[in-house]
């Protein structure tokens, strides 16, 4: 069992994130009637950025250089602990997969990325950090209440156990939808933010990493690819595990179906991005409120069952 | 499952549609939500009719579907098109807070229901959801500023009362139900015509500005 | 007689600590202007003894012999596991303050008489320790009042400035009002039970509502929880930094200690208590962090964060009481462990943050965030410690703030899983989301504070001339930072010590293992991953080293530090979102010939109106002044005959009342 899982972890963390970003970009390009770059383009970008030297601002301090490492570590560890592609966490880390620990560890990454953004002393960084703080105030309760609903429905606080034991289908559907909308906000995708433009009007994540270049930029892009996989994968797994058939499959089949579901959700996100426009900044809480109501309803259903 | 019967499931779906309507500001989307909601209630009536093998419920469901779920939203959409109103931003609460209020109404209906009705299951045979619908209708009428939204809120309230009657008292006599539906239809048509005239006289149908008629 | 006094090993530690501190009091009052180094050494030694006693001494009770009598009861002291944890807090913060203060007082040397400062500081430490080990209400109130007076004297240390004087008077009035409620509650409890000793006070049911509410209001005023928190952001910034650290870190915890002893440990108990704790704690947490976001004075920001954390501690206490009411020992243990552990952690990281503010204040002579910036280059150790403190207060793993908030989350989750009523379960889940929102707001606030003060470029000339603090100041901060880190990593061990309290919480089940996360393993893996990536980057970068250049400014070239984000701009979206609560408004003024297209000067000002103060407390105070004006004005006629007549009338009234029967 262990021999099969180990290469799956490596594929999970090193290949799937880049492939996923490539697929999303390709789907979006096809929606816009372009051919777009190849799905393997993020791999080439990563390798190219690693080879380049970087330009560091004079105003920046060691926090600016330290932050990408911390952000990437937090994303990698969350990528191992959360079963976003169907594979549970490794045995010796099982008890660390408490969902509160994971959410707060991603918070460590957010803390340092916001500090690094403000560190360079430019207004872009301040813009990105301020908006990121604002969005995270709206998103964290949704994620926490949603995962708590899943945890209450399955009876445990451990992420691997939640997904292994299963939860009630209604809670699953409501939470999956809530996680999908929350993921759009968390990953700075439309309609909350446009990840492809670099204008002040439409930057949250891109504004925070504007000052990074070369190696540090490679690390930050890798971290954001892993986070995209984690959040959209969480939504995909929640939807998949509504059906009891999925749980009883062997690990390899779970993995393949999980990755397929993840890619389908990614393509869905890209298709939706082709249709909708970015919301007026003051209307963003109104949009996120739908996710909040979905997760509160999921909590109500989970609590009422017992 | 949450040991809900089919009827209760559709009642919950109707309330979820109403909660979604709370967060939406475009008039045509609101009318779609209203249509969905009324369809759910018609389905509940049909299911009830099949369950107790009574023909009059199926007739009632059909009439409800045609008049209240199809004809009324279409008519209101035509009026909205003529008056050229597209969005209703509401007065006191922004859509996010209205959404939370709607969710709170659902939770309130769920918690109050067992106290009003002695029933085994959670939503007390749909009574809780009916109370939630009535509350959401009132929230609509209190927080929206265009006259057409007031009409939509009134229709949601009407849906709630119909649902309560359906699930608790096994419906009123068929003639009474038909009478109510046609009453509502005529009322909506009159309201539509009045809104049309209002818009022609005042160039808007914003009820908050009608206070000036006092002076 | 020797044996009667010194029962139990703890009393030796306690006595030694008190003796050392008493020496400081005496010497300080004798030579008020002296700046001898003896004072911090004695205070540090006393605190060290106290902390050692808390860790190693046993439990026990002792009382001073009969000639020393306080009216209703004698001087009785009781040390049990609950008091030992709070004594450990006093001891550790005392050591750190003794290390920190000499450097800070050097900055204040013209304005404050240093010997007097040390004397009153030591009196504060003695009284806080006495509050925590007192066994009956009279000793408690005696020590409580000494604590109030000494902290008032310390807040008013720098009394040349008008705002400091006003703040000190506000603090005194608030604490007296709170103590009045507390005394009323104690008197009522005495009437119900007939004794002053705390362990005799077991009142439950409807009779307990009166004393419990009065005691709660009195203690809540001292602890600084909503809605009685208004004195906190006024008093804490006015005090010198070591005093703010001790007040915010330790003095608020003595009120929490009293709450735990009286209201939670099954002494005074009525049904709605758990809900009151939970709801007031939740509102307190939200209110504190919301107003902290709006502040641009570094100390006021930290003071409002104290309100937030006291709210979290109250939520833990609420969980404990609810757990007892629904007869679920796991919930009660999680709640109480969370509350006590969070008190300890908050004392540690809040003192650390206040010390950091003290260094900034001493070196740049300003506490205004908008004038600082880029201090990491001049004071690297302080910045590192401040970042550790901020990470701890935002509950980031693997530090100690996360450990205690995790316990509170687990308590809420267990309530949501196993309470009998659906409404309570739903409420549990909603409180978890509420706590997550409060945590995200705290994160935003500390990102603002750290990045605007320490990172970026200096925004004014004072910030450019800053230097690192003295070795003592840095040592005090490093000590507290180490405690924060180790309390986070060694959480299970600390929980074992707290379990001794839980065992006394009169619960049937044995306290099982509450802690299920392998925190050291997690921390090791986290740090290991960071190190591996760091070295990988270093290896790669040998071929292409980084080059330094100016910050990207769209090609316009090097811009001034004024173009950085200010703290006000950082919080503007969040402040606007909650704007209805405090009437947030931003006024922008453009001046110039063609204002719209080519303004010459732009000024933006944001303001908010704290409704609790303007709509509730201010009218109340005005009403009280008007009423007292009406009566006092009539009574104080200035005529001696009138005063003598008043006295005779009252005397005859009293004689009639007493001898009526």
Percentage of β-strand residues of chain C: under 5%
Range of helix content of chain C: 55-70%
Spatial order of the strands forming the largest sheet of chain C: 1-2
N-C termini distance of chain A: 35 Å
**What is the 3D form of chain C?**
globular
Number of strands of chain C: 7
| Class based on secondary structure composition and strand pairing of chain C | mainly alpha
Structural class of chain A: mainly alpha
Poorly predicted regions of chain C are 1-7
Sheet with most strands of chain C: 2 strands, antiparallel
Instruction: Give the rounded overall mean pLDDT of chain A.
Output: 89
Molecular structure report:
The complex is a heterotrimer of chains A (306), B (215) and C (661). Chain A has 306 residues and is mostly helical. Chain A has helices spanning 2-31, 41-51, 62-81, 99-119, 123-154, 159-165, 169-186, 205-208, 214-240, 251-275, 284-305; one strand at 55-57. In chain A, 71% of the residues lie in helices and 1% in strands. Chain B has one domain. In chain B, helix 1 (6-22) runs antiparallel to helix 4 and helix 1 (6-22) runs parallel beside helix 5. The longest helix of chain B is centred in the first third of the chain and has 29 residues, at 55-83. In chain B, 45% of the residues are buried. With 661 residues, chain C is mainly alpha-helical. Chain C is 69% helix and 4% strand. In chain C, the strands form three sheets. In chain C, strands 1-2 form a two-stranded antiparallel sheet. A two-stranded parallel sheet of chain C has the order 3-4. Classes of the chains: A mainly alpha (306), B mainly alpha (215), C mainly alpha (661). Chains in contact: A-B, A-C. At the A-C interface, strand 1, helix 3, helix 4, helix 5 and helix 9 of A face helix 15, helix 16, helix 20, strand 5 and helix 21 of C. Strand 1 of chain A pairs parallel with strand 5 of chain C, so a sheet runs across the interface.
Brief account:
With 215 residues, chain B is mainly alpha-helical. Chain B has 7 helices and no strands. In chain B, helix 2 packs antiparallel against helix 3, helix 3 runs parallel beside helix 7 and helix 5 runs antiparallel to helix 6.
Descriptive tags:
heterotrimer; A: 306 residues; mainly alpha; 11 helices; B: 215 residues; globular
